[in-house]
What does this fold into?
Amino acid sequence: MTTARILVTGATGYVGSRLVSALLDEGYDVVVATRNPDRLADFGWHAQVTGVAMDAHDGASAKKAFADAGPIDVVYYLVHGIGQPDFRDADNRAAANVADAAKDSGVRRIVYLGGFVQYGFGIVNDDRQDACRLDNVDCSASDTRLGVMGRYHLPVGSLLSPWLGFGVGYEWGTFSLHQSLIGSSNTDSTWSGFEFANLQVGADYHVVPKVALAPFVSVSIGQFRHISTKTVTGTTTTTTDEDVAATSLHEWILIGVRAAFMP
It folds into this structure.
């Protein structure tokens, strides 16, 4: 069986360098594209990969890199300039340069690493929260996640594009209690910690050429390590911050719809 050849851009970054190691462990033939191939010597895997010079922001450089690399089956695009001036426009141009060069070289799959933000409302279980069953007491819960994710799109049709995504990030879970039995008080407790794995399955439906709506299901595994509690009673505010004494893994299942804009 022929071993797939995979080209990784942004391989000298935190995510890219670890992705290269994982691909090599799985037996793939890896080609690494970077603006400065001399930097590859800093990584233990440099002797196991083929290095090519590529500046994703230069269309001619991208085309030459694919010509130098030879046949490629899959491209992992991990180049991002977040924090740089006008990074959004620059990122779009760089991604388009690589996509065009890959298409001209016959590449059929590109895995693009992007960011994700998720916000979900929680359902409070009154059987576990006695105070929430009382009159004049309102309870609510929410969860917010921020991270990076790679998505693999399955070629089905021009209007519908199913995809699989895997990412890592950071999350904040909040439980809020408002009571007006005696005076009035609001208590917000926020747990925060790393999300080790976020697996998503969805399908983009292109309502117009550059806009897609996508129903999706997300399953994530994380670990809360810190808790912050803020209580407001009248004009008095009390805040506490502490590490979670007993940490354990937890799981979330989120069903939702995302909107995607593709310039």
Q: What stands out?
A: Helices lie at 14-25, 59-69, 87-104. The chain has a mean pLDDT of 82. The domain at 1-107 is CATH 3.40.50.720 (Rossmann fold). The CA atoms of residues 167 and 199 lie 7 Å apart.
